[in-house]
């Protein structure tokens, strides 16, 4: 019924000359509720249509303004600098003065003169093995040597005076020389009963205890280590053979003790390992505090390439176009902060520590776009972020 009345009201308005454009005030004055509701519906529909059109216009304007709005970027001025490239390998801390002293004489270990951790000097006595009467034999041999020497010297004086026979002189000489040789041999054997330090260092481990029977070449007595002459040994791939030599700069990191050292290659092997196609290098490292120990794992960075006047840029701003070319963007200034982005094709070389050396495409003084470069296009307006 309401819909019929609503239609009759509209028909009435039309018949009375209403064309839907009657003012709100006029409709309100008429007091016709159906006409008022009809006008409200009409205006609501118009409002929705206008809002939809306005949203479309706003979206288009925003897109247009965004394309024309300068992109915010940061820049840096290109300057020449020293660029160093390093090849990184793992190494091992070693020392040539890290030895286990074995028994050289068979017998009972009678004395150990040192303790673990004790510092000793080169030639210092470390332990003694029972000589089994060898010292008595040496004393007896020395007496025989003294007699043979006296006999030889007297016979020589007589021979010089043309007294006596030549055979007596030669026999005395032979006996003396034989006694010397026998005495030297016995003393050498006796010397093997005393274990001495072949170099200055620290007693790392006393392996055998007094009273133990020791056997030459089999029984280990003492481990002696010198921590003052430490070096890192590392294997370098053979393709770096021409760029790594004695004196090459090296950085050494010891993660276990949180230590870093700068050094130089002191020795390069002349042998290529056929198993892994590499050659060995040695790098001397300091050990003032004594924390560096043999067999520590080391990270070795070997400087295989250096450019004194190189142009380098951050590696993360480099891009690749559809042709596979490496590109970056330069800032072409319009005023202090406003400019345009210029795409340049680069020829790059080595990369290290998040920086890449550029061989061509950039020159000193160019202004490179850093932040914001990934989303730029050639010729786009840009503004420097303050």
From TrEMBL:
Pfam families: Beta-barrel_RND_2 (PF25954), HH_CzcB (PF25893). Residues 134-190 form the CzcB-like alpha-helical hairpin domain. Keywords: Coiled coil. Residues 33-67 form a coiled coil. InterPro entries: Beta-barrel_RND_2 (IPR058792), HH_CzcB-like (IPR058648), RND_pump_MFP (IPR006143). Residues 232-304 form the CusB-like beta-barrel domain. Belongs to the membrane fusion protein (MFP) (TC 8.A.1) family. This is Efflux RND transporter periplasmic adaptor subunit. It comes from Aequorivita echinoideorum. The lineage of its organism: Bacteria, Pseudomonadati, Bacteroidota, Flavobacteriia, Flavobacteriales.
């Amino acid at each position: 019924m309401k819909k019929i009345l609503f239609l009759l009201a509209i028909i009435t308005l039309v018949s009375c000359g209403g064309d839907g454009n009657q003012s709100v005030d006029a409709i309100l004055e008429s007091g016709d509720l159906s006409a008022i509701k009809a006008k409200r519906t009409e205006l609501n529909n118009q409002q929705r249509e206008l809002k939809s059109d306005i949203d479309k216009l706003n979206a288009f304007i925003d897109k247009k303004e965004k394309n024309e709005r300068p992109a915010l970027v940061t820049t840096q001025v290109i300057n020449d600098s020293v660029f160093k490239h390093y090849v990184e390998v793992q190494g091992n801390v070693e020392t040539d003065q890290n030895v286990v002293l074995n028994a050289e004489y068979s017998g009972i270990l009678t004395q150990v003169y040192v303790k673990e951790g004790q510092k000793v000097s080169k030639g210092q006595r470390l332990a003694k093995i029972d000589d089994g009467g060898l010292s008595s034999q040496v004393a007896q041999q020395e007496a025989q040597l003294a007699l043979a020497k006296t006999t030889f010297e007297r016979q020589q004086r007589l021979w010089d005076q043309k007294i006596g026979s030549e055979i007596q002189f030669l026999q005395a000489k032979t006996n003396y020389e034989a006694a010397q040789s026998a005495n030297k041999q016995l003393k050498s054997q006796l010397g093997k009963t005393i274990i001495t330090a072949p170099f200055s260092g620290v007693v790392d481990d006393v392996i055998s205890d007094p009273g133990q029977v020791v056997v030459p070449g089999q029984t280990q007595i003492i481990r002696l280590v010198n921590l003052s002459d430490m070096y890192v040994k590392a294997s370098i791939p053979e393709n770096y053979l021409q760029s790594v030599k004695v004196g090459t700069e090296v950085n050494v990191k010891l993660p276990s003790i949180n230590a870093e050292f700068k050094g130089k290659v002191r020795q390069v092997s002349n042998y290529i390992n056929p198993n892994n196609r590499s050659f060995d290098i040695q790098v001397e490292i300091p050990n003032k505090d004594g924390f560096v120990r043999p067999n520590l794992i080391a990270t070795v960075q070997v400087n295989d390439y250096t450019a004194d006047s190189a142009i380098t840029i951050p590696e993360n701003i480099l891009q690749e176009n559809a042709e596979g070319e490496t590109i970056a963007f330069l800032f072409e200034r319009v005023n202090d902060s406003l400019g345009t982005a210029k795409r340049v094709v680069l020829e790059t070389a080595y990369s290290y520590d998040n920086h890449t050396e550029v061989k061509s495409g950039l020159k000193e003084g160019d202004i490179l776009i850093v932040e914001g470069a990934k989303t730029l296009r050639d010729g786009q307006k840009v503004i420097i972020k303050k």
